User: What shape does this take?
Amino acid sequence: MLQIKHKQTGEILANIDGDSLVGADLRYMRLNGADLVGADLTGANLKFTDLVGADLSGAVLHGALLLGAHLNDANLNGADLSRVRAGSDRAAGAAMFNGANLSRANLKGADLRNAEVRNANLQQANLRGADMRGTDFSYSNLCHVMAAKALFIQANLREADLCSADLRDSHLNNANLAKASLHDADLTSAQPEGFTVVNLANFEGADLRNARLHNVSGQDANFRNANLSNVDFSQAVLGGAILRSANVEGADFNGVELASVTMEFANFSKALNAKIPSYKRNLR
Assistant: This one.
């Protein structure tokens, strides 16, 4: 028999039949504040389990079921959450990671659809190939995340920090990145003819200094009032995009068609390689 104890008081929170937590059925249990450091919970069923404030640092949760689980303020630093099933078509059925420490966690291929991950720490986390459609990452720290080929479609990344994030070949269609920090982020592609998709994404007031958006598909994206200084937009598709009052000093628009781009009050006199149609007015 295994005992799960509280990380501070040592109180026994649960007695588990068997000598392993691999594949364990822990559904609906109250394990808030549990000490599960380094635990092997591979394939475990944690559906709607209360793990608020639990210490799961270094734990293995590969393929675990986390639908509806509460992991707010949990410590998942360095944990293996690859292929976890924490997402749902409905927000009410998805996991909650608000305030959690997911730094250096492995979330490769994880299902996080509609999960709540607000004010969380995901620095250097591996999100490659993860499904984060509709996930709420608002105000979270995602600096240096590895998120190539990830799905952020309709995700909420408002005021999130994605500095130096690897977002190559990812999909951020209709994502909310208002006032987010993406300075030095990579939104290019690992393939010669590939591209990252940010169609309809909202970057209003965002900081994209020195970001790489070569060949990006940003149709109808909103960059109003964004800091786009020194951004590489070369060969990008920006049809219908809004760059009104954006700072484009040093930004490279080589090969970009600007005919349908809203450019009023942006400082295009300081941009590079921008072929501005003669009918454009109110440029700076």
